[in-house]
Amino acid sequence: MLYVRKGFSPVFEAPVTIAQGDTPLGTHVFTALAKDGGALRWNVVSLPTEHLVKKGRYVNTVTARGEKLRVQLAAPEHAQQPAGDPTAALERINIPARR
Asked: 13 CB contacts (<8 Å, ≥6 apart)?
């Protein structure tokens, strides 16, 4: 799913399709910061998964609020993937036209 928010208010939501769905995309957060001459200025933060502690079929992680979580992995071998390329991730996502 694609979720677009302004502050915490919903602006747009849509299902997306991902090419090569069996290959990890990585975790990327794209933020539109401001208009610069009519075009949006973007910031991206990519999170590597290699900092997660892999324990069997689970990983321990911490949320942005500092809450500790123990998460079961569907595919534990993906837990050690680096952040990946955010541009390549975007190229694999098909976002429907807004109605």
From this structure: 1, 2, 3, 4
- For the chain, give the number of residues: 99
39-69, pLDDT tens digit by residue?
888 889 988 765 444 555 677 777 777 788 8
Residue 71 and residue 53 in contact, taking contact as beta carbons nearer than 8 Å: no
User: What Cα–Cα distance (Å) separates residue 8 from each residue in 3, 48, 65, 74?
Assistant: 11, 25, 16, 30
pTM greater than 0.70 (yes/no): no
What is d(CA 24, CA 44) in angstroms, rounded to the nearest whole number?
18
The one-letter amino acid at 14: A
Whether 19 has a pLDDT exceeding 90, the answer reads: yes
The whole-angstrom separation of Cα 18 and Cα 93 is 5
